[in-house]
Amino acid sequence: MKQTEAFRSKDLVSSLTARLAQAVTRPIKIMEVCGSHTMSIFHHGIRDLLPADMQLLSGPGCPVCVTPQGYIDSAIELARSQDVILASFGDMLRVPGTQSSLLKEKAAGHDIRVLYSPLDALEIAAATPARQVVFLGVGFETTAPVVAVTILDAAKRGLNNFSVFSAHKLVPPAMEALCADSGLQVDGFLCPGHVSTVIGLEPYRFLAEQHHKPAVIAGFEIVDILHALLLIAEMLRLDKPAAVNAYPRAVSDAGNPTAREILQRVFMPSDSVWRGLGLIRKSGLQIRPEFARFDAAVRFGLKETETQTPNGCSCGDILRGLKTPPQCPLYKKVCTPQTPMGACMVSSEGTCAAYYKYIVD
Amino acid sequence: MDVVSLAHGSGGSLTGALINDLFRRHFENPYLTEAHDAARLPILSGKTAFTTDSYVISPLQFPGGNIGKLAVCGTVNDLAMSGARPLYLSCGFIIEDGLPLSLLETIVRSMADAAREAGVLVVTGDTKVVNRGAADKLFINTAGIGEIPPGIDICGSNATPGDVVIVSGSLGDHGATILLEREQLGLAANLASDCGPLGGLVAAMLSVCPQIRVLRDPTRGGLATALNEIASQSRVGIELDEASIPIKPAVRGVCEMLGLDPLYLANEGKLAAIVPAEMAEQILAAMKNHVYGKEAAIIGRVLAQPVGRLFMRTPYGSRRILDVMVSDPLPRIC
What we know:
Chain A is of the alpha/beta class.
């Protein structure tokens, strides 16, 4: 905690905001890709502290938000079958499918359990050999290695009633897809801190080299974020974009090769649908054929069906940074945290949910 | 091991034994000892406060208390939040067949201890035993009666612009404790529930300032939900100063790890008070002199605008909304 306090220092915050005011010399838009950054930015009221010309946009970095409705529908179908125990991280439960949500299904008596670690699912599987335990594998490079370890562990323990329904996603391919979009109005990227502990700095270099956009890995405290924004603003002012690791106390430039090795042993890249963005090539993680018996999609013949975006929903534009939530016709009218219509309202990390929760109107 | 069985709830001799040997022995007082179908109580003068609550907490025992202590303190605190002096409690037990008698006795003993500390008498009660699976080990309902002293008018709609917000101590202790116990997260945190009766603290506050506007014990939904309710009922805005809100480092740590906000976690021995600004320092001093108010702090103020909204002023001068809780806080993926 002591160490964290230094990154919440009022003095540092005021000197950083003063320097930001100097560094921002033209209107600039910076996208924070990670949902935890979005949360922290709103929690600390960081937008209030920035120069008027610096605008922050929230990108597709909340794993719950970008999980397509079709996946939720399949998960619900699974939960309804008698011999299945569905295990999930907590914030997946409120996400609406086309008809229902896992929270509603749980209330209806189906066996859905909230876990803090996928490894807990193995204990459940070992304790209930007559039932199938399916873990909802949702998350980015941060969580996927733990799920991979869980699968390896299940193999070692010879568990035959455990599987993972993988909707894992990879961050760099999504950033690449965003950059390929000619309409993108983003001058620089605040890169995710947790994901980077695994993937390191290398995967962001293309942003500077090919797309001429600064990309800075940032931590989650207010000083971390302001410092990273200052680095981006300086690079833009000097027109010298680069990929920089501004979170060295947690992220090594090389990332975590062990985690990546485990990840690659169990998963392989696959095309994947992102709610609000559509299909992005090689942006998902699929369980390798040699671990097929732990793949719920194979075991239960599950398919992620394509689903229609609700009429009027602007999530795609919001995830691309083209619109802010108040510009969506559904925002706060029919789409609220209690009745989310689109991806960005469903998780507490989503841009619309964060706006709804924290912004004074 | 001796356990509670369906026969204990049959109305026969085992029921009598349970009542006499356990409940009556621990709750001993003249009204209960009369053993009528109803307790006969003197009529109170002035205004009476009357409330009820049911307790279904799992696990039954937790660091800092158990379901019994909670059942007494929770209802005593609801009475105290209306400015009442808590006097009498009723107590209904719904017991699942098979509950160890020793556990029941432990729970009843802490109820008696809490009642003694709070200065309330358990004057009437009821016991039912239900089949396995029909209840989760033990449910307790308590109802309470208290006397509101003349001149006291405490109500959620009384907050007035210019008033000051005080809390009696650190927030989120109970919620964080229960979360760790329930989820068996293997996090070693030196945490205990704050479960405690607040009648004495409220009496001490009222003795220096009978014009306290609002009192609330921020249980489920936490401080943020309680203050949102007050902001709506009083048609005012409320602004808090983040740096002044007491939160234990262990609670903050657990919350940061799990992606939760301590201001939405339950408290069972804390109160929030809205008081006239000119009396705030005196009330605060009286609170700090009381065992349940040692860490009391002034944390914010009531504004005229915007109506029905609760804000946080960060240490950096920025603001954010604190909204009402949608449903139980769910831990985040990352």
